[in-house]
Amino acid sequence: MRELNELVDVEAPAWPELREIVGAGPATIEVLPPDDGQAKASLLQLQVTARSYLGAVILHCGGLLVDGGWLRVFGSPADGAHSRVPSLARVNRLPEAFDPAWRADAGLVVAHDVLGGVFVLNGGAPADHGRPGAPGEIIYFAPDSLRWEALGVGHSAWMAWLASGALAEFYADLRWPGWKAEVEALNGDQGLSIVPPLWSEQARRDLSATSRRAVPMTELLGVARDSAVRFDAADPGPLGAA
Questions:
Q1: What global pTM score does this model have?
Q2: Cross-strand bridge partners of residue 74
Q3: How many separate domains does the chain show?
Q4: N or C end of the chain: which has fewer CB within 10 A?
Q5: Is the dihedral of CA 12, 166, 204, 114 positive or negative?
Q6: Exposure string over 40-60, b if 16+ CB within 10 A, otherwise e
Q7: 238 domain residue, yes or no
Q8: Is position 173 within any domain?
Q9: Which of 71, 65, 78, 3 lies closest to 38, judged by CA?
Q10: DSSP state, 155?
């Protein structure tokens, strides 16, 4: 186990580089203020250093709101930012006090989108949980297919991809006229329930004709997991708390 100072006081910390990438890219990204105590506790529990992009987000960000909050990248939010995005510690149920036995074997949930999509940094044994991709790769649980997709990149490349404005293409078939106003009206623990659901033929044919309402993200993720089990007989595993 590495001590906190070994994780924080590193040569070539990633935050200056990441901050430049986030600020210079075409994507609209809001950086929320962090809570120092929570950030250091999460860093210690996960044993990642500030030299990594993951460590930089945890240590220096309360979270990132991409495209007006369509995507929420989890960090360590300060008081006042909790209503806009939950913490990485809460979403992944990190122990309140350091526990050397705790492991995120199924992977670490690093972001949710408002549709119930989930981005996960694969753990050490993803195959044991029926998930694709290699350890350290970002995978995505797609709410329109109820299945995991391997994205073929690690966390650092994924962060740069977010800043590049690539979400517009990635979600091209899942956005409707007026989506920005609906997303901006949500708080950090809400998502959008869509009826008929995204995986239905009706929604695929005309997404703008669906009915949408704000619901707790926990409810949205629970419905997605239950639907995956019911239709594919495959449990996607933990999708994160909210």
A1: 0.96
A2: 63
A3: 1
A4: N
A5: positive
A6: bbbbbbbebbbebbbbbbbbb
A7: no
A8: yes
A9: 78
A10: H
